[in-house]
Specification:
By secondary structure, the chain is α+β, with helices and mostly antiparallel strands. It is built from ten helices and 28 strands. The strands form seven sheets. Strands 2, 3, 4, 10, 14, 15 and 19 form a seven-stranded mixed beta sheet that branches. Strands 5, 6, 11, 12, 13 and 18 form a six-stranded antiparallel beta sheet that branches. Strand 8 (144-146) and strand 9 form a beta hairpin. The longest helix has 10 residues, at 278-287.
Length: 455
Amino acid sequence: MKTSEVSYEIPLGNTEVELAKKFSAETIQDALSSDDESEDSQKIYAYEFNPTKKDDAVLEYVMNYPLKSHTTALPATSDASSIVNSITPNNDGKYEYDGLDSFTDTLDTGINFKEILESIAGSSDEEDATDYSYIFDKIKFGTTTIDNETYGIEAYAYIECESVESANAYFTGKIVVGETDPANVNDASTYVSVLADSDQDGDFHLVTTDTDLSSKADEEGVITDGSFRADGAYSVALDGDALTDYMNGTEQADGTLKKHEKFIISCNLQPIISFDSKEELQSFLENTESLTVNINIILRIPLVFEVTDDIEIDDLLDLAGNALDEDLFKRDDGEEFEFKKYTDLLQALSCEYKFSNSTGLGLSAKIVSNEITDGEKSGKFFDDKEIKFDGEEHEFEFTTEEFTAIFETAPFMPKMYMKIDKTDGNAISIKRNSVFGAYALFKLTAEGEVEVWSK
């Protein structure tokens, strides 16, 4: 058989990730949602948030958590007069009644960034899937300012109360965050308060804000209406810095950060009914049987973070869910290619690649060899090949020694190694139009003639 020069192309991998699609609202929603489908389970609603309506805006999310309604009975009508007569006006001349039961609730936000990362990266449903949760250990949420807009973690609480006008009631209490359901939300040594200092035991006023964000989302789950965070729209703004510090972990005695596996928000709120006169208060107590309180919490989380230490990913294709799990040339393990027979035909082996990055992260990569598993040989098929991360096509050739080793022994299973550089205290903001792409193609060139049959 005689052949002119022929080139065979064997793809190692091809992956391009548009981050807004990879981390879509639907993906985040699925990662947050509980397997508990019962009526009593808490519902979580996640949306992408893009108030500027720009493609190059920071990629961020809002998560809506409607807590269960709470109803408390008012005192018996016969007790109204004695209650009113025991109350004296405050400094503002208001008559306030605080004898109702307080409302306590616990919200498991479903936010476990390790689990979210595992659910999005690679084939996490397989038992032998690579654990990429270590990536989260090297990420620290932060804040940044772009065009006079500050991007950082925010949270708002909305309290609605049926049977009473917003001007006639308010709440005092505590809101905390921790890993477990608190036995006492006032225990600051165990749970982190997420109320700003000015709001500690402050007044949380009732609001009538429409917190059903689904009506504001488009078909892709994107919200551009930011009215939910306008002044006066919420009962209280939670302390974003305290939430950020909690998400980033608690510093241990050895200086390391302990990442929290749970993100549970709990509240204990005391309703206070307030009227201008005793007569108004007495009328309310005599004509109202119960109060029903609805509490909603909305979190805003932009993808703004620091990389605290270099992140090494041994196999980028595995992270993307496209790991090479067999010999690149489809040979069985241990099967020898008849290299000597075809040595005059096989002219060269090269690798063409292109790596692109618009995430703002500092990335470097190499194509690396697996270990030779043949009992008579050891080492690797080739030395690591550094690659350029500039979005341009490049190509490198293997040496004769490397070329020979690759075709004499199977399995040959190269990988794409990648390193994300630490950001040295600088916060990186991931944009909606950020793209990461990588592909590598092995090219085998053959030319000449070989005897395939003899009479």
